[in-house]
Amino acid sequence: MFSRIENGYFRYQGSLLPNLSVLIYCHLAYFGGATLVLSLNPVLMAVGTVALAHGMVIASYLIHDCAHNALFKSPRHNGLTGSLLNWLTGGCYGTYAELRAQHMRHHVEHVDVIRFDYRPYLARHPFQLRIVQALEWLYVPAVEFIMHAALMVAPFILEEKKNQRLRTAGIILVRFSLLAALFVYSAEAYLCYLFAYAMFLTVLRFMDAFQHNYEVVLSGGEDIRAVKHGGDRTYEHLHTFSNPVSVAHPWLNLICLNFGYHNAHHARPAAPWHGLPGLHRKLYGEASENGAARIIPFHKQLASFHNSRVARVMGDNSETQGNRFAKRLEQGTAVGASGMSFLTPL
Questions:
Q1: DSSP state of 30
Q2: Which residues have C-beta within 8 Å of that of residue 269, sequence separation ≥ 6?
Q3: Beta strands in the chain (DSSP E)
Q4: Where residue 345 falls among pLDDT bands split at 50, 70, 90?
Q5: pTM score
Q6: Using CA atoms, how far apart are residues 333 and 153, in angstroms rounded to an integer?
Q7: Based on the number of CB atoms within 10 Å of its own CB, is 32 exposed (0-12), middle (13-18) or buried (19 or more)?
Q8: Mind listing the pLDDT tens digit for each residue in 143-187?
Q9: Which residue among 93, 222, 226, 307 has its CA within the 20 to 30 Å range from the CA of 59?
Q10: Which of 151, 243, 237 has its CA nearest to residue 206?
């Protein structure tokens, strides 16, 4: 029976157990964590907050697998699963189709394509920039909150998204009604959810910050495929970095569903999350330092994330040139990217 299910629905042989396990874990962590938060027992609320955050992290990386059609054989099943999981992450204000399309451009054109660049706006409003920088100094993921807010309001501002207004308004009504109900039930539980959401965004942005030093290009302008690096696999590899949580203890990378094996992912984008450690070893061996796999040691990731948390708000375009980014990573001073989550296709 299980063999028929695997052969009938899942894309890869041997993926039934890992995929079912992680889907069950994702929902147990999210809804179990929420139940613990609602218990109003301080100890259980603390445990529930962490569980809730991790449930959202795993949901996000499962969406990423769905976007690559790496979970199920059928694109329809991947799309349905990705859309439903996006309700857990709060990225559901945008459509799954847009999320997938923009992420595919990232892989094909080897640039970070965005529709909304918050940086020129903040540059024109110094007071607001200082507020965002102060929040980021305090480790509040203000830029990610800005991008999620922009995702909500985009259909009411951008003419090309006006057909989504009714859908987005309905989602806002449902989600904000649930948040209001949570606040009425318990202000402490409401704060736990906000803290869990901030933790979740921080994990995603930590993983995103140093995986590429691609150029950032506004969509809707020039034909970037004609003038940038589309199809250039050498450029892709040289500007892609792996940031596993641990090389010595691979099981720790399950915290982020092996998303840190990023060179392996870009080498074979349709490889499933559970196949990435083996693919990494096959392609790059057991290298644990920057080299063929361009691995960033975890302590260097932490150092760069901490040292550049304010500078990352506006970024440093010079890091896309030459070997500057790699050298800064080695020194723990890389600035990296911000506001580039695949959950906010803007």
A1: I
A2: 68, 107
A3: 112-114, 216-218
A4: confident
A5: 0.92
A6: 34
A7: middle
A8: 999 999 999 999 999 888 899 999 999 999 999 999 999 999 999
A9: 307
A10: 243
